[in-house]
C-alpha cells in the first residue's frame, strides 16, 4: 500500500506543469537583475514577446546563455507574474501608468495594461464616432465641444466661461436693494442669455445624434438656464398677476442652475459629479441614518424639555431643527436644552451624528479617487492618441517630401557628373541615353573611366 501510495504521489509530481523532467529552464536578465522561469510558463501566451521563441530569440546572449532586456526591472516583475498567474497583471504602486503601459506594450501586453489602467475604454470610445460627417459641421462642433482642438476653440471656451461667470455675478448683484432697479442688469442678462441661446442652437444643429444631444445632462442644464429668461419676458409683457407672479419667482430661482454650466469647463466638477452619482447608495444610507437620528433625538429632547422649555421645544416637529443642527455639529445655539436629561440627549445626539457622517465618507473618498485616476487615464489616452496622429501626419508629410529614387542604372558618380553639367537627372534608361548625349565625349559611359581619369 505504501509503495502504491508513493507511486501515485510520484506520478502527481511528474505531471505537475513545473516538473524539471519535462520542462526546461529559461534565464532572463533585465538590466542586471536575473530571473528564472520555465519555458512552459512563457508558452502560455505565445502571441507575446516572451511567449514566442522567435520573438525573444533576438535578445538571446549566447555567451551567457540568457535573454537580456534593457528594460524597467520593477515592471518586469509584474510582467513575469502575468505568465505565472495565467493572466493576472498588476501594476506596481510606485510605477506611473504611462511607464507601465510602455513596458507592457514592449513585451506584447499592451491591451491587458490598457484594460487595467482604463485606457481600453477610452480608446474604444473614440470621439470620431460622435463627430458629424459634414466637414463644416465637424469644425463647428469641435470648436464648441473640444477647447483644445484649435485656437478658435480656446477663444470660444474663454468667452463662454467669461459669460457664465458674468451671468452668475449679475444674478447675485441684482438682488441688492440699492442696485435692484438698475436697467443695466437686464441688458447684461439679455446679452448673456442671447449667447447661451445661440450656442445651444449651433451645437444642436451640428450634433450628429439630435436625440442623444437633447437627453444629455449638461444640455438639460443649458435649457433650464435659458428658458426662465424668456418666460419672464413673456409674463411681463402680458402683465401677469396673482399666482403667475409666484411662478415667476420660482423661475427666477431656477436661473441659478446655470452655475452647473461650469462643469463643461472644469474637469474637477465633472469628477465630483461622477463621484456623487456613483455614491448614491452611500448617500442614501447617510440620509437614512440622519432621519432615524433626527426623529429619535427630537422626540427625546421634546419630552425632556416639554415642561420647563416649551418656547424652544413646543412640539416634536419643532425639535427637528435642533436635532439636525446638533447631529451635523453645526450648533447655532438658537435652540438648546436647559434640563440635565435634555443635555444628556444633546450630547448623545452630537456623538451619534459624528459617527453617522463618518461611516460612508471613506467609500465616497475611494470613489472620488477612482474617478480621479480614470480622468488621468483619459488624459493620457487622449495625449497618446494626439501624439499618434501627429506621428502619422509627420510620416505622411515626410513621405511626400522625399523625391523618387534614381534608377539603379545611374551610379552615384554619374549622378554627380550630371549635376555638374547642369542636366536634370534621368529616371529611365532612355532618358539616361539622352542625357549622356549632351555630355562631352570624355565623360560618356562608352569611354573607359580609367582613361577619363588619366586625361583629367
TrEMBL record:
Q: Name the residues that span the membrane.
A: 155-176, 182-201, 213-231, 283-303, 315-332, 344-365
Tell me the keywords, alphabetical order: Ion channel, Ion transport, Membrane, Potassium, Potassium channel, Potassium transport, Transmembrane, Transmembrane helix, Transport, Voltage-gated channel
Q: What SMART domains has UniProt attached to this entry?
A: BTB
Q: Answer whether the UniProt record assigns the keyword Lyase to this protein.
A: no
Q: What GO biological process, any one, is recorded here?
A: protein homooligomerization
Provide the topology term for how it sits in the membrane. Answer: Multi-pass membrane protein
Q: Does the keyword Ion transport apply?
A: yes
**Sorted alphabetically, which Pfam families does this protein's record hold?**
BTB_2, Ion_trans
Q: From what superkingdom does this record's organism come?
A: Eukaryota
**Where in this protein does the record put region Disordered?**
387-407, 428-456
The entry's localization annotation reads: Membrane
**Its Gene Ontology molecular function terms?**
delayed rectifier potassium channel activity
Major location category of this protein: membrane
- List GO terms (cellular component aspect): voltage-gated potassium channel complex
Could you tell me which PANTHER family the record lists for this protein? POTASSIUM VOLTAGE-GATED CHANNEL PROTEIN SHAKER (PTHR11537:SF113), VOLTAGE-GATED POTASSIUM CHANNEL (PTHR11537)
Q: What is this protein called?
A: Potassium voltage-gated channel subfamily A member 7-like
Whose protein is this, by species?
Paramuricea clavata (Red gorgonian)
Amino acid at each position: 500500500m505504501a509503495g502504491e501510495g508513493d507511486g501515485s504521489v510520484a506520478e502527481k509530481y511528474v505531471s505537475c506543469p513545473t516538473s524539471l523532467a519535462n520542462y526546461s529552464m529559461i534565464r532572463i536578465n533585465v538590466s542586471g537583475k536575473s530571473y528564472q522561469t520555465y519555458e512552459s510558463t512563457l508558452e502560455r501566451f505565445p502571441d507575446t514577446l516572451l511567449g514566442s521563441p522567435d520573438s525573444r530569440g533576438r535578445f538571446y546572449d549566447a555567451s551567457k546563455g540568457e535573454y537580456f532586456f534593457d528594460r524597467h526591472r520593477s515592471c518586469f516583475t509584474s510582467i513575469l507574474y502575468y505568465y505565472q498567474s495565467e493572466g493576472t497583471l498588476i501594476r506596481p504602486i510606485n510605477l506611473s501608468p504611462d511607464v507601465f503601459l510602455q513596458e507592457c506594450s514592449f513585451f506584447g501586453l499592451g491591451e491587458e495594461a490598457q484594460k487595467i489602467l482604463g485606457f481600453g475604454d477610452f480608446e474604444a470610445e473614440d470621439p470620431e464616432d460622435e463627430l458629424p460627417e459634414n466637414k463644416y459641421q465637424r469644425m463647428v462642433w469641435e470648436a464648441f465641444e473640444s477647447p483644445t482642438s484649435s485656437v478658435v476653440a480656446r477663444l470660444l471656451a474663454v468667452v463662454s466661461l467669461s459669460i457664465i461667470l458674468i451671468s452668475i455675478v449679475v444674478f447675485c448683484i441684482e438682488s441688492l436693494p440699492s442696485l435692484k432697479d438698475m436697467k443695466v442688469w437686464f441688458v447684461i442678462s439679455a446679452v448673456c442669455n442671447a449667447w447661451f441661446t445661440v450656442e445651444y442652437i449651433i451645437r444642436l444643429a451640428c450634433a450628429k445624434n439630435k436625440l442623444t444631444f437633447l437627453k444629455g445632462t449638461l444640455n438639460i442644464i443649458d435649457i433650464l438656464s435659458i428658458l426662465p429668461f424668456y418666460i419672464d419676458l413673456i409674463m411681463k409683457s402680458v402683465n401677469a398677476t396673482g399666482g403667475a407672479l409666484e411662478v415667476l419667482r420660482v423661475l427666477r430661482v431656477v436661473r441659478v442652475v446655470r452655475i452647473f454650466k461650469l462643469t463643461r469647463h472644469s474637469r474637477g466638477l465633472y469628477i465630483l459629479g461622477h463621484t456623487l452619482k456613483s455614491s448614491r447608495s452611500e448617500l442614501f444610507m447617510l440620509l437614512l441614518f440622519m432621519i432615524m437620528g433626527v426623529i429619535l433625538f427630537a422626540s427625546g429632547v421634546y419630552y425632556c424639555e416639554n415642561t420647563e422649555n416649551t418656547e424652544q421645544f413646543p412640539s416634536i416637529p419643532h425639535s427637528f431643527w435642533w436635532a439636525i443642527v446638533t447631529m451635523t455639529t453645526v450648533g447655532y445655539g438658537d435652540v438648546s436644552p436647559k434640563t440635565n436629561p435634555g443635555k444628556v440627549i444633546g450630547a448623545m445626539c452630537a456623538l451619534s451624528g459624528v459617527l453617522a457622517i463618518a461611516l460612508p465618507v471613506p467609500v465616497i473618498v475611494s470613489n472620488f479617487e477612482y474617478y480621479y485616476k480614470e480622468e488621468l487615464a483619459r488624459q493620457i489616452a487622449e495625449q497618446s492618441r494626439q501624439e499618434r496622429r501627429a506621428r502619422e501626419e509627420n510620416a505622411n508629410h515626410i513621405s511626400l517630401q522625399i523625391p523618387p529614387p534614381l534608377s539603379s542604372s545611374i551610379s552615384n558618380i554619374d549622378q554627380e557628373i550630371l549635376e555638374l553639367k547642369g542636366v536634370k537627372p534621368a529616371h529611365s534608361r532612355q532618358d539616361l541615353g539622352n542625357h549622356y548625349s549632351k555630355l562631352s565625349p570624355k565623360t560618356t559611359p562608352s569611354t573607359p573611366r580609367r582613361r577619363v581619369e588619366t586625361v583629367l
